[in-house]
């Protein structure tokens, strides 16, 4: 590859003689030319700029000087790479397209890269317009801030491109894992010896020699960092970029791992404004947990009696008795929980068969935990469960903290059983549950609560 930089401050680019780029030039992997734009001026004062037509502050770089310079510099590329090579004219400007690693990778595939550094208010726009008819032109910005000229941005581009050329970076593996690589995540934090420095210890796992655990730890830290610093990058991940084990950490960070990739997830208390959507969601999701043999009329009757907008309004009006949390995915309701609290500390569960197996007091019931089917497996149930248990752990009944929560789930609902068993619930017995006119067997699970410190 050949790179030519045209500038009125060629000394600015001396830094390219150093380090890996310098070595790449010495080693012949990269041909680099730095040219003084003033060599193409024709007047005594070597003038490169003029006042802006139409008025305004500052000066604009003259197209005729740039035109002469670029003719000669483009010809250098033809001599070096032949007439068929791919040539890109890159013009750094704060009004350009934001440079990113994808674009850098693309430019690393060019044969000849010419960087035209503007100063003052920039280069007469006809220069980019004219050369766009002959070569690829890229007006690029290195960030949303304004520099005095394009030289620093030229240094950035040369270094970013050069390190991708074969043989420039000694260990190509270090390119694979870094920030803005194919994983779509920022890089995890790195450490070296000594293991303890100024009271700060290197995380134990990195000294454990356990490769799988180290990889998981690094992945979790990369996800955390990216979520905190670049949520836009998390939102741009596709489902295929997610690995097993990502879902849990994403959920903790406020993301659901949906089939379309991570989406922002918020769990909050339901309000009166949610009632219509809640009832819709409840009517859509309740049948999913019912066994196939239940007649649809019975299911519908249950929904009408217990999950109508009027019923949800009652639940919300009686906050001492009911706790309703909703999961909002990208601003839309995707799941909810309904918990029933005891009014008295020693109030037993309402049914005798539950009372027989759930003996801790005060005890609440997790009556409903439902998530839209299209986003099952995204971690939303986990987020709802965590938030519900945390909210219940913070509640007291007659001054006493809740000791436990119980729930009943259809004895045949294997998916639910696996989920509860995996999330710390203990199967304590069975009960009967009436849907419409039918009596169903339910498994009863109990989860003890650790009261949150007040
Ligand atoms: N010239 C001045 N500011 C710039 C920026 N942010 N990026 C590229 N070139 C520039």
Explain this structure:
The structure is a single chain. By secondary structure, the chain is an alpha/beta fold. It folds into three domains: 2-170, Alpha/beta knot (3-Layer(aba) Sandwich); 196-261, Trp Operon Repressor, Chain A (Orthogonal Bundle); 263-448, 3-Layer(aba) Sandwich (Aminopeptidase), CATH 3.40.630.30. Helix content is 32%, strand content 25%. It contains 15 helices and 19 strands. It has an eight-stranded mixed sheet, sandwiched between helices. The chain has a five-stranded parallel sheet with strand order 2-1-6-5-7. The chain has a two-stranded antiparallel ribbon with strand order 3-4. A hairpin with a 2-residue loop joins strand 10 and strand 11 (261-269). Helix 10 (275-285) packs across helix 12 (309-317). The termini are far apart. The mean pLDDT is 95. Bound molecules: adenine (ADE). Residues 92-94, 141-143, 145-147, 150, 153 line the site of adenine (ADE).
> Low-confidence runs (pLDDT<50, min 5 residues)?
none
Structural class per helix/strand content?
Answer: alpha/beta
Principal-axes geometry comes out as elongated
What's the rounded overall pLDDT mean? 95
CATH architecture of the largest domain: 3-Layer(aba) Sandwich
Please give the share of residues in helix: 25-40%
Work out the number of β strands: 19
Oligomer: single chain
- Please tally the helical runs, counting DSSP H or I stretches of 4 or more residues: 15
Radius of gyration: 32 Å
CATH class membership of the largest domain: Alpha Beta
Compute the separation of the termini in Å.
65 Å
The set of bound ligands, ions and cofactors reads: adenine
Largest sheet: 8 strands, mixed
> What is the topology, as strand order, of the major beta sheet?
10-11-12-13-14-17-19-18
How many domains in all? 3
Task: From the 3D structure, determine the CATH topology of the largest domain.
Answer: Aminopeptidase
**Corresponding CATH superfamily of the largest domain:** Gcn5-related N-acetyltransferase (GNAT)
Instruction: Indicate the proportion of strand residues.
Output: 25-35%
